[in-house]
Design brief:
Isopropylmalate Dehydrogenase; 2 domains; 10-stranded mixed sheet; two-stranded antiparallel sheet; 14 strands; globular; binds 1,4-dihydronicotinamide adenine dinucleotide; binds 2-OXO-4-methylpentanoic acid; binds magnesium ion; manganese; metal-binding; branched-chain amino acid biosynthesis; EC 1.1.1.85
Amino acid sequence: MTSFNLLLLPGDGIGPEIMTEAKRVLDWAAAEYGVTFNVSEDLIGGCAYEKYGVPLADETLAKAKASDAVVMGSVGGPQWDGKVAYDKRPEAGLLKLRKELDVFANLRSAICFDALADASSLKRDLVAGLDILFVRELSSGVYFGNPRGIEDLPEGGRVGINTQRYTDKEIIRVARVAFEMARKRGSRVASADKANVMESGVLWREEVTKLRDAEYPDVALEHVLADNCAMQLVRAPKQYDIILTDNLFGDILSDAAAMLTGSLGMLPSASLGDGGPGLYEPVHGSAPDIAGKGVANPIAMILSMAMALRYSLGLGEAADRIEKAVDGALNAGFRTGDIMSGGMTRVGTTGMGDAILAELQKN
Ligand SMILES: NC(=O)C1=CN([C@@H]2O[C@H](COP(=O)(O)OP(=O)(O)OC[C@H]3O[C@@H](n4cnc5c(N)ncnc54)[C@H](O)[C@@H]3O)[C@@H](O)[C@H]2O)C=CC1
Ligand SMILES: CC(C)CC(=O)C(=O)O
Ligand SMILES: [Mg+2]
């Protein structure tokens, strides 16, 4: 019997609540496809800091590296903001995990399900049928560059420093992922940078263009300044198929794109490297404002689990069926609070899990 090693890291805030629903979907896949998932669970983020004194323990990292896939909920919360050393904050644990797994390509899929076209903050005709794939560089750039820190200035006062830094190799490897994905989709890539004001953007643009010209002449490439890209996303989002961008711009642009689909609670992600375990996590954070209330939307988490099945475990058909079941649950009128609208059936986190499971049993 085929078996896979999975590490689940529910994390903080709504993480454990939504992970519970993703585990039910995993159990469905195990039974349906006759595979064994050797599932182990551990801590990351604030809860890991409370137990181990660090947001990502060495043992947890070792388990992650030995897994076929790592599926994470979310980290962070106000109880740790400004109260723990900066290098021990929950988010630092997640950044370390991404870096150590060397998952440099973060695929963030912004799909507007038909049933939710009216839940977007934009008009229906702007978002109906929307399907954008962000390919965000994830293991370099300004979140990781040195020098960094907060220093006292000799003349008095302080300075906060972060460094945006990209090597040609880092740009080429993530651009290659975007071009390869483009060949499976609409053969179009829009690359977003700030080449008008940043040298790292100039290099980004040059390397992306060289790679396209040399190896992917069949893929249409457009360069767009990241600020204009943000504006275009709310003006006419369907002009985009794949958006390739760096770590910081990708973080911001994908959260903005989330609202095109109805809610941040809808966006899953897959972070892939060169053959090691993939890391799968929703785009959203730990949502402290709704944590513990049983109302969080588990769809981004469940779709992230589907991406794990597709990209790391070779169970693409199971992933397709899970995505179809989410569509089915939405078409049947089930809504968590974040996507609620008139005439629909309001459910909590577990209720949405029930509705998706019910759809999976039907197919
Ligand atoms: N990957 C991760 O673990 C991330 C962690 N964070 C951390 O999360 C904490 C909170 O950050 P925020 O800026 O509030 O961002 P957030 O993404 O946690 O929440 C933003 C808003 O979206 C809502 N929301 C998010 N996910 C939802 C879901 N599944 N269902 C329904 N509503 C949902 C929240 O209730 C909130 O109103 C911070 O500590 C931050 O550093 C933020 C982003 C990513
Ligand atoms: C380390 C994370 C908290 C940064 C983030 O917001 C993200 O990757 O989406
Ligand atoms: Mg973010």
